[in-house]
Amino acid sequence: MIMLIQDLELLDRVPLLSALTDGQKAQVARLMVKRRFERGETLVKQDMKFNALFVLLTGQVRVVRTNEQGREVILATLQRGDYIGEMSLIDHQPHSATVKADQQTEVLMLGRTAFESCLPEPGSLAHALLHGLVQRLRQADQTIECLALSDVQGRVKRALLEMAVRDAQGELRIRDKVSRQDIAKRVGASREMVSRVLGSLQAQQLIELLPNGGLVVKRALELA
């Protein structure tokens, strides 16, 4: 009974679950399973699915994102009261990062069925907003990875791909004039460096500058 009360108090400090009624919290707590992870163990792995929400009771974990070359960037360090796994449960997509225990860590795990019973009805505005917020968080994780692990050319390439829109012929185009200054602010580099990178991409025929200042992103850049 004491453990149940402690768990309910913990849920009160979890933003995702704090809005539940006392009855709902009690029901959720009964459906949760406690699990212990030793130092170095993986709770969830990037690009894989694990259908559970984890609420940390003790210990500490780190959230790490790895690029295609195997380089890592630490996105966050989480402790008691924090939670992981909610993004994948909401949008049914693989995890955007790997989570590993920095020390012995105990968690409460809530399965997908119980978690979804606490969500707004599918088709509601609140449900749509949740999906939109998760999408933004995933994009933020990708941006952090790019800024931390990519060189300026890699960051500019990513920015161009994000800004471009595919036309009826299947080409990726940025129709309006591309501001070097705006790209520089987006990728965290100087305007001069961005200009040099764009010149290099043009010389490699990876982009085509248009008379109005827009550009075409070539297929080779998409595959690079």
Search tags:
four-stranded antiparallel beta sheet, alpha+beta, disordered N terminus, 224 residues, 2 domains, Jelly Rolls, Arc Repressor Mutant, subunit A
Polypeptide structure, described:
It is a single chain. With 224 residues, this protein is α+β, with helices and mostly antiparallel strands. It has 2 domains: 145 residues, Sandwich (Jelly Rolls), CATH 2.60.120; 71 residues, Arc Repressor Mutant, subunit A (Orthogonal Bundle). The chain has 9 helices and 12 strands. The strands form 3 sheets. It has a 4-stranded antiparallel sheet. A 4-stranded antiparallel sheet has the order 2-7-4-5, with helices on one face. Strands 9-10-12-11 form a 4-stranded antiparallel sheet. Helix 1 crosses helix 2, helix 6 crosses helix 7 and helix 7 crosses helix 8. The chain is elongated, with a radius of gyration of 22 Å. It starts with a helix and ends with a helix. The N terminus is likely disordered.
Summarize the structure.
With 224 residues, the chain is an alpha+beta fold.
Query: Per DSSP, what share of the residues sits in E-state strands of 2 or more residues?
Result: 15-25%
Kindly report how far apart the N and C termini lie. 57 Å
The main sheet comes to: 4 strands, antiparallel
Bulk shape = elongated
> Spans of 5+ residues with little confidence (pLDDT < 50)?
1-5
How do the helices and strands follow one another from N- to C-terminus? HHEEEEEEHEEHHHEEHHEEH
CATH superfamily of the largest domain: Jelly Rolls
How would you classify the quaternary structure?
Answer: single chain
The whole-number mean of residue pLDDT values reads 83
Rg:
22 Å
**Total of domains:** 2
CATH level 3 topology of the largest domain: Jelly Rolls
CATH architecture of the largest domain: Sandwich
The share of residues in helices is 40-55%
* The CATH class of the largest domain: Mainly Beta
